[in-house]
Structures are given as structure tokens and as C-alpha cells.
Amino acid sequence: MAGNRVGIVGVTGYLGGELARVLSSHPGLDLVGAVARNPSGPTLGECCPFLSDVREVRVSRSPEGLDCDLAFLALPPGEAMRTTPGLRARGIRVVDLSEDYRLKDLAKYEQEHGSPHQDPEGLAEAQYGLTELHRTSIRGAQVVANPGCYPTAAILAVHPLAARGLLSGPVVIDAKSGTSGAGAGPTSATHHPAVAGDVHPYGNGSHRHYREILEALPRGAGTPISLTFTPHLIPIVRGLLCSIYLPALQGEPGEEAMSAIREAYAHELFVKVGEIPRIPWVVGSNRCLLGLEPNPGSLTVFSAIDNLLKGGAGQAVQNANLMLGRPEHEGLPAGGMGL
Amino acid sequence: MAGNRVGIVGVTGYLGGELARVLSSHPGLDLVGAVARNPSGPTLGECCPFLSDVREVRVSRSPEGLDCDLAFLALPPGEAMRTTPGLRARGIRVVDLSEDYRLKDLAKYEQEHGSPHQDPEGLAEAQYGLTELHRTSIRGAQVVANPGCYPTAAILAVHPLAARGLLSGPVVIDAKSGTSGAGAGPTSATHHPAVAGDVHPYGNGSHRHYREILEALPRGAGTPISLTFTPHLIPIVRGLLCSIYLPALQGEPGEEAMSAIREAYAHELFVKVGEIPRIPWVVGSNRCLLGLEPNPGSLTVFSAIDNLLKGGAGQAVQNANLMLGRPEHEGLPAGGMGL
Amino acid sequence: MAGNRVGIVGVTGYLGGELARVLSSHPGLDLVGAVARNPSGPTLGECCPFLSDVREVRVSRSPEGLDCDLAFLALPPGEAMRTTPGLRARGIRVVDLSEDYRLKDLAKYEQEHGSPHQDPEGLAEAQYGLTELHRTSIRGAQVVANPGCYPTAAILAVHPLAARGLLSGPVVIDAKSGTSGAGAGPTSATHHPAVAGDVHPYGNGSHRHYREILEALPRGAGTPISLTFTPHLIPIVRGLLCSIYLPALQGEPGEEAMSAIREAYAHELFVKVGEIPRIPWVVGSNRCLLGLEPNPGSLTVFSAIDNLLKGGAGQAVQNANLMLGRPEHEGLPAGGMGL
Amino acid sequence: MAGNRVGIVGVTGYLGGELARVLSSHPGLDLVGAVARNPSGPTLGECCPFLSDVREVRVSRSPEGLDCDLAFLALPPGEAMRTTPGLRARGIRVVDLSEDYRLKDLAKYEQEHGSPHQDPEGLAEAQYGLTELHRTSIRGAQVVANPGCYPTAAILAVHPLAARGLLSGPVVIDAKSGTSGAGAGPTSATHHPAVAGDVHPYGNGSHRHYREILEALPRGAGTPISLTFTPHLIPIVRGLLCSIYLPALQGEPGEEAMSAIREAYAHELFVKVGEIPRIPWVVGSNRCLLGLEPNPGSLTVFSAIDNLLKGGAGQAVQNANLMLGRPEHEGLPAGGMGL
Q1: pTM
Q2: Which of B24, B91, C50, D161 is most solvent-facing, going by the fewest CB within 10 Å?
Q3: Residues of C at the B interface (Cβ-Cβ below 8 Å)?
Q4: Does the model's ipTM exceed the 0.90 cut?
Q5: Cβ(A143)–Cβ(A83) below 8 Å
């Protein structure tokens, strides 16, 4: 099977670097070019000193010359919707890792951002890409909106329950993320002396993740879902854990709920249900590990991912594999670093 | 005002060392002796190399020769109930930092531990010592059961709501603690390579904290409280945060609930209600900082303490101050390290 | 003994905040005012939320109204030399925590900074303030240049050897500092995801520390000292360790060298010679702990301090105590946090 | 090219788990069995929950049934020399990751350990396996003594200098290692609360590393090398940095020394000379990155590796590839995780 040509737009950020890392050992996707606004040098070797053997991949300042089948966009909010139309006009399919194409409501977008969305047609046809839930639509999509890291972990845990109408009670998601999720730009929120001894709940941006989670959940006739979502920054670099509380679960000891989750992923390679997961088990892996803790009348689900892989670059490659007709798991590590 | 003579039994553990540290600068409590099963040397200087000027405090292997007004017990579970009767027979009052005297139910104790409680009379008269809630009873008590670190942070946040009958919906407590809470003995759960990149929910012992929290909350006529409590270990050393979710709060936007909490602590030096707290603000401090985040129909309360101070040695000294007729806040830092 | 009035200029940085913390419990120095360019609020309570009971200390935007006996300057490089003359004109003595007054050579200053020093007279009369070495001169000084954190740890270890002419061979200082030493401003060098898994040698600014160390060491007739100094950033917040190698020490097994160090500090409260120190033993303490490891023909000295205390705010207060005729150790903790 | 059958003895330790991880994606080495004294379950899936698709690899309690071409031994000190003879009697070649076969001197072994070496013939024929230095001998060896993590980083940096006779002055190695280097067993030295805020020099075992480094360095006629080696534990999990000081280098500005290092590794994939390395650049990689910092008359070399890969399991597989006639780099990642 011949390889496909892919490019990365925004390669100097953390997700862009992680894409380059995954693609550097992918047997079927050839990284033919990269784009960065301020590259550290003319080739990927200078931009990503942790990589090896990528010195011949050129880094340009503009996506205009990028010649490939599919481009990964790893750009700050608001830039993907300006970049995508040009790429699509040249027949390049897009996996966008930003939030630009995740939420469909144009009016809300304008209300939140104070300016209109720059690619409404793209938004209309973009496919939300939580791979395990939307395989068929992803295969044919021209633009895939890659999910956020928090929503990936949360939705995989809760979706099977919503699909069976088990979410009549409140859902409380206490999420903990490593600091790489905040990106490569230094801020006071990620300043080491301030972060290293703290665990900090934060609201900035949580509303978008909240809506992204809600929109992805199927709903019975008119039943609203009562969702609380609170992200916390913890002093680790990679990894994310959602502790998901269903304190008033419909039905008894949560048996039906546990069955729903187990059955939903019984045949998945990248989503596993088992004991309470540890972050180092998913670091370096494209897996989401789910652990179940039942109590009388309630259930707690722990969902762990590597925020840069299943929560970002890994899922993006998983989606690209599907879009390009390749084996879904090609080039993606299922096992974690362990330490 | 003359000083009082105090001693520490179990000085080589983390809480024992923290007691020694606090007492070394306490203007009214004179540390006259310490006890440890396996001291590193004959005086406190060898056992606590981080301290200064404590070389003349002797460390014995048994509490028998301890001559003081009040003894702090910082011992493993099951040892305080064997040590307390002997101290009390000699007229020494006790602040016990273990769990031995916290839960009153003798039958449950025996059921859980497989052997009977060794000091049922002591247990019957012991006063639970969450200082802000039980000042009067603490003053006259012979034995005070110092609260656990998780319960201290949780109860201070939730008690005002329970007292006003506002807890008809579920209460979800997602607690995150630094590793010093696990004590000075190395275990696989606190092995640096395993812990440093992880955030780990754990069940061991959570049931006792769960019951300690429940027992401390006042209840209206027959209404049970639906409580979920899940502790997590995070890779910091000192500090503890409880994220407390009230997803279906009685009444509207949580105004009554917020007022209840604010009013309960309006005149407290060591409990403050304000913005979302940061752990470094309470490290080194005996304060509990509470932050409120209201949402339509729900409320989240964040409660932060230094697990070794307000969650341990600090509150123990606060209680001892009361028992000995001293100013409650004497010798206790209200401000935190900041970094 | 009546208290003295002091002020802090630059209270929103880490050293400024640490000064406020130390002064908030100092029995003899009254913090009467603070200055910050962009304060978070009108009083110290808003600028330092980790402190308690400092709500009545006003924070101004300019030092002009500051009315006190002595001012601590905790400002970025280049600002103290612009602020000091105005304060001195009003009879206010100064302890400057920046590098502005540390190195005497005006020509080198201009050469390094590309512009002349703004207070050459101040520089000429300023006293370098490594307290244990310069007590007498500090007492009478109008301006004290408080040493840098690295130089404090290094000089205290090496000075006794230089004073006895034992440094004929090379001196290698491998220094490791926590990230609070880099200050409160976020940079890529202190971005948590980049720092948390790294130990990083860095050159920026090391030349100035190198010269500061060299200048403080006494020299025999014409013998140059061969010094290598390499700072490393490590993923802790507070604390600093210098591993100081004397691989070709004059004389035998280092006995004379060890005696020189032990005797130099035999009567000091804040400098102790003993076993290899641990960082948590000095965190929160104004002590410098020195550990000696002799080998045949060589000696290694480990020197640990809290970079914000003995390496900054603590030594500044120690110097202020001397300048104002107060007990040198007043208000300064000798013991450390331990954890 | 047909695959080779390999096994792991001691799979529950950190190096054993890392071997299993590397081998799980190795295209030419088939992991056919593993051995552990106390496995968590009958297959590798239970022992290494971070791995994927290893459920069919059986874990036995004894190496007796292990049927393979080559066995990796990842055992505590003293056990490999008891296990190797039996394996070799069955024609199984051995890569031993412990120290048992590293130092040739039988008399010193007995003196240090108080008991004789259990496999003196094996020791006599064992080949020290720092791959880049001993390729030819490794290819034909029956037993390869895989180097320690500290020696690997140190020797790669210093060997080219020793080979050219440039080490007449002192060599000071200040080494910093993450805690995974201490192994999977909890001890007070790796207890999170004690380690997380500290950087700690330690002597235990440093003498063996010291000798391992010295023995691997070529020497001119009779010139002794003056080496100081001090390991420090730092609060990261993976990774190791040696800061190597040559404060009195023979010859001028270190140009000859720098050339020697650059030329030695000009054609190596796994040893690169460039800018000062960062630990995350080597985490997950089998590379050693060397950075050079010249000063007048002296040179500092920084050498970084992943202690579990190039410093352990990675180099072991690199050696096994050579022994089995496979491409040296097969199955080994050259690029690092970056974060």
C-alpha cells in the first residue's frame, strides 16, 4: 500500500511537535512539509531538537507551497478557519486540532468571540472526530474537527450512558490535566514556581469544553443533562484524568451503566475498560483507559489519556488514517511508557 | 501568663516533626520531652535535623517518664488507644492526631479492625476537635480527637450548609492531597517514580474519612446525606484541596448556601472565604481557605489547607491552646509561604 | 527597644513578597509601606494573598511618599540605582537585593550593560552584605548590596579556604537552583512543561555571579583562583545547592580545609557545618548548611540555602537588623520546614 | 530476515518492564517468555499494565523453561551470576543489565561483597557492552555486561579524551539522575515527600560506578586519571545528566578536546554532539546527546541519556541486535518524547 503525503501547519507548538514525532515513525504517512510562523531554522531538525532524522523536512513560513493529501492544523484559536479554505481549494483535506470547527452554532460563536466565524461553509460540513464514535463519517470527511483533550476523555466515558438514557441524574466531571495541555507559550498560569506545588481549578475556557462535551452526547426526547465540568491544572507534564461522578444513577448498583460502558468498547484497541488507570500507563499511548468504581446507587468512572496523543496528535493521526483509507491504528502506539 | 509543659509521643513521623517545628517557636508551650520508638539520637536535634536549637529536648523510647500538662500523640493507628490511658492516669491531657478516638461507634470499630477498641472509656469521653465547631467542648476535654486532614477541609466547607438543611441533593467531594499525608514510611503508593507523573484516586482508608465527615455533619430530622468522597494522591508534598460539588442544591443560584458559608466564618482568623485558593497560600499556614463558584442551581466549594498544619499539627496546637486556657491562635502562623 | 519603620520597594516580585512575609512576623521592624509599579490592589492584602493581617499596609506606585528608616529594594536590574539616590536624599538607608551595587568596577559595568551606572557615588560607598563576613561594615553602611543567592551559598563555603590560601588548585562549582530564583515573570526558561522533567545548565547571567563570587574571595599575593561556576535549573521551587569540588586541594586529605570551614562558623547561628544537607532542611530557614565529603587529596563541599531567605529576603533582614542596631537574628527563622 | 527468540528474566523491575516495552514493538526480536519471582499474573499483561497486546507472553517463576536464543537479565545484584551459567549451559546467550559481570577483578569483588563471585568463568569471558566502543567484541560475545546508566553517559563523554591522552588534569563528574534509576522497590531515598523538593548527593554505590568509569577509560603509559564522581538524585523520573568538568585541560581553549569528541561520534546514530542537551530530548530515545561548553583552558561537557534506554534496556537491545547479527539500531527509537 503506497504511502500518503501529509503536512503539519503550526509545527512549533506542542501538538505540532507531537504530530511530527508520531509521523516520524509512521510507516504509511510521509511528512513532506511543515509550516511555522517563526521557525527556529529551515528544517524540522532545528524546530524539534528531540527528533531524529527529520533534517530534510523543510519548514516554511506559509502553507501556500504545501503539496500533500492531508494537512494537520495545529494553530492557535481563530487561525485554522482562516487557513482551511485555502487548503481545501487546492484539494487538501484537513484535520484541525483547534476548536475552530468543533461547535456548530454560528450565532454562539459570534456572540462569544465578538466577530463572525471566518469559514461558515467549512464549519457546516466539518465532521467532529471522536474516532470511536464517528468512524463512518470521518472516512469521507474533507475537514475533521479533532476533539479537545478534556472532551475526549469525558465523552468516551459518558457517551455509552447517554446513549442508553441513563443520565437522568447529575453528572460531575472533575478533570485534572498536566501542563502541556496549556501549550508552549509561557504564561503566569504555567510558570513553574507557581504551578509546581499547586493543584488549581480554573474556569478560563472551561465553558467551551463544557459545550463540546454536551453537544457530543446523544439525548433522549427533551431530557436535559445536568453537567458540572471543572478542569484543574496539576503539576505533571503529560496526561489527563477525568474523575466522573454519577451520584444519582438511574437503576441499581450501576450494573447497567457498567455493562453499557464495557460493551461499547469491547472490540476497541484504543479504549479499554479495567482497573483504575494510572497516568503513566497512557503516557506515550493512544489509548483511553477507563476504570469503574461502583457504589450503591452511584458510579464513578475514571478516564485517563495522554492529552497530546489520544487527546490531540494521536487521535488526529487516527482520524487521518481513516480519511486516507489506511488501517486505523497504523503508526500509533497502543502501549504506554509506564514510567 | 506562665508557659505550659507539653510533650510529643511519636516525634519521628511527619506529624510529630511538624508538631516539634510549630512548638519550637511557640511562645507559651514548652516542649519538655519527646518519645519515639526508634529515635535517630538522644535529642530532638538528631531526629529533626531541619530544626534549630532543639538539641536539649530529650527523646525517650517510652512515654513513661514524660512529665507534662498535655501530650500530643502522633502514632500509627491503634497505638494511641494503648498509650492514652496511661497518660491520663498520670493527669496528662491528650490531643490525639490518629483516628483512634474519632469515631464513636464501638461495634463498627471492632467489625472493621477485627479486634475491640482498647480504650472504650476514653473513646466515650473524647471530644472531636474541629476547633471552629467545638470550641467550648474542647476547652474542658481531657482527650481531644484531632480531625483527619481530608475531613477538616471537607467539614469546614460543608458544615454550614448541613446546619441550615441545605444538603438535600448529592454532595460530591473530589479531594486531592500531597504525599506527605501518607506519612514518613516508604510504600509503593508513595514511591517517587510511580507518583511523580500521576494523579491517583485511591480507596484504601477512604471509608473511614467518609464516615468521619458524615458523623461531623448535623442532620435534619431523618434526612440522609448522599455523600461521595474520593481522595486522589497528587505529586506535591504539602497541601490538600477539596473540590466539593453540590450539583443539585436546594434553592436558587446558591445564594443562601454562599451566605451560610460566609456568615459561619465571618469572625474566624483561620477560616477565610474568598477567591479560589491556591495551595501555596496555605502551605505553612494554619488557615483553611474557602472559594465559592456558583452556577445556576448548583455550587462548587474549593477548600484548601496545609494537611500537616490545619489538617494535623496546627489544629492540634490550636486545640491544645484552648484546653490549656491560652489564646487560641498563639504560636500559629496565619500567613502561608506563598512559594 | 522601640521598633524601626521599614518599607519594601518592589513588593510584587518573589523577593518582595518574601520580605513582606518575613516582616509580617518580625517583632522589631514595622512594615509601614510598600511600593509596586502595578499593584493588584491598594493594600498588601491584595498583592500577597498568602499573607494574613497585612490589609492595612498601603501599596503605592512610587517610593516618593515612603516614610521610613530603611527601605528594602527588590527591583529588576537597573532600577535600584535609579531609586536609591532619592531615598538617601531623604535620609532613608537602603538594602538593595538586586545586582546594581554588588560589583565595584564602573568600567566593566558600562562595558557589560552598554550604558553607565546611574549612581556611581552610591556604588562607591555601598557595602557588600554577606552578613557573616562583613558585620562591622554593614552596621554603619547607608547602602548595603545584598548578595545573590548563588554567591551566598558559594562564598560561605569557599571563603574560609581562600582566607587560608588553600585554593591553589581549581575550584569547580556545580550549582542547582529551584525555579523561584528566576523571579515571578513567566519565561520559556521557567515554563512548567519545559522545566518539570529537566535539569538544565544555563549560562545567562552566570558571568555576573562568577565575578561576584571571585570578588568576594580574599587572595594571597597575586595567586589567581581558577574557578568554574555552572548554574543548573532543577524542578523544585525553593532551595539551592552548590556542589563545590576541590579536586586538587593543597595539603593532605583535606583536613586543614575542613578545619578551616568548621572553625570559621563555629559560633554562627545561621551557618552550620555537618552532614550532607537536604534542601527541605533549609526551606523556610535563614540558615546555610554545609556538608563536607573528603577524599584522598580532594574535598567536596555541599552548601544549601533557601534562595529566597539566606539567598535573598532573609539575609536582607539580617543586614537590616545590624544596620538598625537590632539583634542580628531577630525575626528570622533558623529552623526549616522539613517537608 | 527471520526473527530471533528472546526472553526477559526479571520482568517486574523497571528495567525489565522497559525491555518488555521496547521488545513489544521490535520487528525482529520476538519476546517468547518472561520470568519474575512474584509475577502479578500468568501473562505479561498483568505484570505490565501499561503495555498492550502482550497478554499471550507467559510469565514463569523460573528461567528453567525459557527457550530462546538470548536472554536479558534484569535482576538485583548477585542474582545474574547465579542465573547465567544455567542459561549458557542450554546455549542461551546473555545480556546482563546488572553489575555482576562489569568489573573484572575477582579479588576486589570478594573484598567488597564479603563473598566470592559465583561465576568466575563467566566473568572472565564477559564483554563490557558500551556499544559504540566495543562493537566487534560484542558481536561474538556469549555474555555481555550491559553498562550502568551513569557510566554510559560519563564514558561516552570522556573516552575520546582519554584515548588521545588529554586527561592529565582532574576530571570532575557531577551527575544528576531521575529516581527511576533507583529501581522499583520503595525506599526512604525514593519516598516522594522526601525527594520531591530536594536534590541530593549520595555515596551509596558511587564507588562501583566510579570504578566502572575508570576501568573503561584507556590510559597512556602509567598516567593515573584523577576522577571525582558524585551522583545526585533529582526529582524527575526518567533521564540523567552528567556535567563533566575538565578545569585544567591540556592544550589550548579545549579545541583539541572538542575535536576529539566530535570526530569520535561523527558517524553514530545514537551519539550526537551539539547544543547543551535537555533531558526531554532523550527521554524515550536510545540516544546520548553531548553538549560542549569551552572556556579558556577548560572544557565542560554535558552528557544526557534516558537512564532506562541508552542507560539500560535500550543499550541492552542494541547489544542484542549486534550479538544476533541484526541491524544495530533495529527496533530502537532515536528520537525523544520532547515533553
Answers
A1: 0.97
A2: B91
A3: 14, 17-18, 21, 24-25, 48-54, 180, 237-238, 269, 274-275, 278, 280-282, 284-285, 287, 308, 333-339
A4: yes
A5: no
